[in-house]
Amino acid sequence: AGGRVRRVAVIDWDVHHGNGTQDAFYDDPSVLTISIHQAGNYPPRSGAIDETGSGAGAGFNINVPLPPGSGHGAYLETMKRVVVPAFHAFRPELILVASGLAASSLDPLARMMCYSEAYGEMTRMVKSAAADLCDGKLVLCHEGGYSSVYAPWCALAIMEELSGIRTDFKDPSIERFSAWPYQDLQPHQADIISQANP
């Protein structure tokens, strides 16, 4: 039909499980839903790896419940090993990002360690996938992030990547956050990611 798309991929990288999106499309094979979230954060007992869709939608829902303390390495590995391959297998006509910023290092509602560069890199990866798969049709929707001090730096990294424009503003905390121990991919995080690999 004119103006409509037949396959949509939704990636939710907010720290909370994308339970609403999952529930809305759980039996729908025309929508691929992927949620990267802190395991056990919110809602409780939601977003397990074995929640993969039902009926005609079986296999079209992917959850990556990362352990608390996951940061740059775990998020980028999830994008490389799970999200981008799933996009290429599904071949969406539109990619939608539920772009919450609550996995950032200073967020009071979570215990993750992402810093602004991680959000820029994840944006670069979905932008590249959209260019390859669906003529650049990409929508990012901001969904929150509760550190008024740090979320704006993560949002700026996303906007710079989307626009291709680099501003003169530099994240004043990036050196400190990137140097935190365990920012690199850890074995227990890699194990979860490998279980979610589509």
Structure in words:
The chain is an alpha/beta fold and 198 residues long. It has 6 helices and 5 strands. The protein has helices at residues 19-25, 72-90, 116-133, 151-163, 174-178, 187-196, and strands at residues 8-12, 31-38, 61-66, 94-99, 138-142. A 5-stranded parallel β-sheet has the order 3-2-1-4-5, with helices on both faces. Helix 2 (72-90) packs parallel to helix 3 (116-133), helix 2 (72-90) runs parallel beside helix 6 and helix 3 runs parallel beside helix 4. It starts with 7 loop residues before the first strand and ends with a helix. The mean pLDDT is 97.
* Largest sheet data: 5 strands, parallel
Number of strands: 5
Strand order of the largest sheet: 3-2-1-4-5
Fraction of residues in helix? 25-40%
The fraction of residues in strands falls at 15-25%
Order of helices and strands: EHEEHEHEHHH
Mean pLDDT over the full residue set: 97
Q: Structural class of the secondary elements?
A: alpha/beta
The end-to-end span amounts to: 30 Å
**What's the shape?**
globular
Rg:
16 Å
Low-confidence stretches: none
- Counting DSSP H or I runs of 4 or more residues, the number of helices is 6
